[in-house]
Amino acid sequence: MIRHSIKRGNPLTWVLDLIGETCLRAGFSSLKTLFILFSLLNMGVAYTQDFDERREQMVASQIKDRGIYSRSVLRAMRMVPRHEFVPTHLRKLAYEDRPLPIGHSQTISQPYIVAYMSEALKVEPGDKILEIGTGSGYQAAVLAQMGLEVFSIEIIPELAAQARENLLRTGYLKVNVRCGDGYEGWPEEAPFDAIILTAAPEAIPPKLIEQLKPGGIMVLPVGPVHRLQYLKRIEKKEEGYTQSTLLPVRFVPMVKPPRP
Description:
- By secondary structure, this protein is of the alpha/beta class.
- About 35% of the residues lie in helices and about 20% in strands.
- It has 9 helices and 9 strands.
- It has helices spanning about 5-10, 10-15, 15-25, 30-65, 70-80, 110-120, 140-145, 155-170, 205-210; strands at about 100-105, 105-110, 130, 150-155, 175-180, 190-195, 210-220, 230-235, 240-250.
- The strands form 2 sheets. It has a 7-stranded mixed β-sheet.
- Helix 5 (about 70-80) crosses helix 7.
- The N and C termini lie far apart (about 40 Å).
- The relative contact order is 0.11.
């Protein structure tokens, strides 16, 4: 996994070479050009370090102190740059304990919920997981950072495209993103060791249960739109499944495709 760094994560550094070439063409001396590039690089380092510090504080106060103990989850939450998965004008809020809008009436979940759901899956590195509701790609990046093989479905084409871009930019190259109907799952890649939903259906989708391995776990919010929902943990058995209620939540509704 490629770790987020100043070379990949800070947009300022993407254009350093171009700026250097432009400076030289404009007649600046090599020394002056190096000074400009060095100043910009220092700005980029400060930019990255500020977000790194906020992310550490987020993990310490919002996640670890609230009972998340999984080492792989904590490590992933420390590694994945959440600010790269929110709109630019909201990056200063990226590490606060709150969901944030990402467009198209969708949100990125608050950090604690991302960590809580990731831990509840009880997965191991190498497991194959289906995510319904890619959004901006943040939850998929956290799962990939945990060493999982991630297949993610997003019904809104613009968000699917944005998620692919976000994941590519931050180095999570092996996350598979499809634009499609989450209620149908990804049957040609089934069965899955675990399934996670980041949007709430009103009832547990039966086709997703079918695509879960016996012994596999699905974590999802269930309930009507604009009312209190409950986070459920489903464990599939050889015949049927068991379910438990984890905590009350509020998610955006799981969208059904328009009828033809």
